[in-house]
């Protein structure tokens, strides 16, 4: 099967030019100013922008959080991703039974995803306790299973202390794998949460007021210190939500520390005022870290622009407002944490970033596709338009104006945080390994067509980019 994409404005990680892309089976086989070849399918991309498919390295599909289960599974969640221009995800495994080994959750996640996902996928391993046998087992998960990143949490049920975090970083660094970290200081959070609850301060805004900016900044700083003590093991700070934390990362980057960072659309486009909405609608935004005071948004943009923040992930973790989220209506701390966003990442970043000239097209491609692929050992198979790369390609119509609403999205959840947002520019065609799977607003691919991707090792980030 061959596909020819003609006359598009092609945006790669390095340049923007007018040209054609030729695809044979799964791969891009030719890129040029004018490719004159017969193809089974020719797509006219005149007036459109052709980008590498989005890579979202922070999703929680099917996540079990206490008695709640996230509303998107690997079918509905990846359909929504494809319709929003994302062609590869790396999902964060949930915690398993107490004391389980690492392979346990790998098997559980293959059970969740295989034969369901419609785009390509991988998983981040999860470390919920640290002992000699877990440290030992990491090698086989990396080398046999092809999983080259592991998540640690500094809060929640299975938070790791500094000694355990250091052991994890050192071992993963030695093996060529990345430690991804949820950075919030648990002691600070529990102090403020308990103080607020004891004063009967239970409405959604107290979720945010229980998780001060300093809790994130302190944890980020501590983890960067531990990574340098672990012989500069590679660390990836997920969902950075504050200017304070980003400033610490900027300083570490200036000192060539082996750290990379992600923020998410919610921290760029939404703010703490959302928690004050009437009828308890503030519950929709209960996520961790919480939405912040508005001044953080421009700071985060400036840290994207200067390369401190490399990646935009979604932290897609949807619970229905009219169902699961209501558990928090009399007490914010009972509300499942998380919000949807897998389908709106590319449209929001394109519209607010490229169309509003905060970033250029190349920077956009890097933060939504190339950098996430590089950080997580997927590059160059994923994350760029290059000869030999997988033919994961998205065609954006810069003239298409869309009013975002949960009705038009494919996410399996009863709200979007971006209801009524108007975006200029939208994905109109998504190809995954050469197959058109989304077109004319509809998903047209087959359930289960997505493949598990074995990822490469990562050690010094600076070996793969600046
Ligand atoms: O509130 C959130 N972000 N839920 C998902 C789990 C996490 O912390 O990433
Ligand atoms: Zn997190
Ligand atoms: Zn998350």
Blueprint (SSEs and pairs):
Layout: E1 2-11, E2 16-24, E3 27-32, E4 41-44, E5 49-52, E6 54-59, E7 64-65, E8 68-69, H1 76-83, E9 86-92, H2 102-113, E10 120-126, H3 132-143, E11 149-153, H4 162-175, E12 178-182, H5 186-198, H6 205-209, H7 213-229, E13 235-237, H8 243-254, E14 259-263, H9 265-269, H10 295-305, E15 311-312, H11 345-355, H12 361-375, E16 393-403, E17 422-432, E18 435-439, E19 442-443
Parallel strand pairs: 1-4, 1-5, 6-9, 9-10, 10-11, 11-12, 12-13, 13-14, 14-15
Antiparallel strand pairs: 1-2, 2-3, 5-16, 7-8, 16-17, 17-18, 18-19
Helix pairs in contact: 3-4, 4-7, 7-8, 8-10
How would you describe the overall organization of this protein?
It is a single chain. This protein has 466 residues and is α/β, with parallel strands linked by helices. It has a single domain (53-379), classed as TIM Barrel, CATH 3.20.20.140. Strands 1, 2, 3, 4, 5, 16, 17, 18 and 19 form a nine-stranded mixed β-sheet that branches. It contains twelve helices and 19 strands. The two termini are 37 Å apart.
